Amino acid sequence: MDKREQIYEGKAKIVYATEDPDYCIVRYKDDATAFNGLKKGTIAGKGAVNNRVTNHLMHLLESRGIPTHYVRELDDRETLVKRVRIIPLEVIVRNLAAGSMAKRLGLEEGLELKKPVLEFSYKNDELGDPMVNEDHILALAFATEKELEIIKAYALRIDEILTAYLAEAGIRLVDFKLEFGKTAGGTLVLADEISPDTCRFWDADTNEKLDKDRFRRDLGQVEGAYREILRRLLDV
Ligand code: UDP
User: Fold this and answer.
1) How many Å lie between the centroid of ligand 1 and the Cα of residue 126?
2) Residues 46-65: pLDDT tens digits?
C-alpha cells in the first residue's frame, strides 16, 4: 500500500493516509522532545529502533490475545497500521516509582510498588497532559464505562506479558505509557508505540537506564541505549 497525504505530524512520528481508508502508514522520526516540548533534539537511529521494537512487542501482545493496530512492518522506519480514532488518554502503568510519580510523592526512584499503579492523563499538549481520574474520564466522555474497563484490563495484562518477556532479556520494566484507539468497526485496540521513548527500561543487573531518560536528563550514551534495547529484543 502506498502513502497518500500526511494526516498528522507529531513529535516523533508522521501518519499518512493510504488508498484504503481503514489503514494508515506511520513513519518514525529521529526527533526527540521532552518536558512538553521544551527540550528538543535528535537521537540518531531512534526512529528505526522505535519502529522495530514497537512492532516486535505489538506482535508479541497480539499472539497473547491483546488486539493492536499493528498490521505489517514496511521498512526500517515505516509500518502499516489499522486506522483508529485515538481515545484522548495516556494510560500509564507503573511497577516501580520513577519520574513524575517519584517527584510528586517524594519517593526514591526504584521503590518497588506493592501492586501495579494505573494513571490516566488527558492528551492535550497545551494543558501539559493533565492527570485525570476515572470520574473525569466518564464525566467528560473521554471513554465509556465499558471502554474504560477494557482499557484497564488490557493495560494490566500488557504489563504482565511485557514484564515477563523483558525480564528474559535482562530488562526491568519500570513504567510505560499506552494509547488505545477504536477501529472503524468499533473494536478497541492498542495503538501508538511501545519503545524506549514511552517506557522506562532499566538493566536488570545494574539498573542502568536504557530509555529516553538518558536524553531527558543528559546522561549521555543516548543512541547506545536505544541500540542496546534493539539488540536485546531482536538480536540485531
Ligand atoms: N510517558 C510517555 N509520554 C508522555 C508522558 C509519559 O511516553 O507524554 C511515559 C514515560 O516515558 C514513562 C511513563 O510514561 O515511561 C511515566 O512517565 P512519567 O509520568 O513519570 O513522566 P515523565 O517523568 O516522563 O515526565
Assistant:
1) 16
2) 999 999 999 999 999 999 99
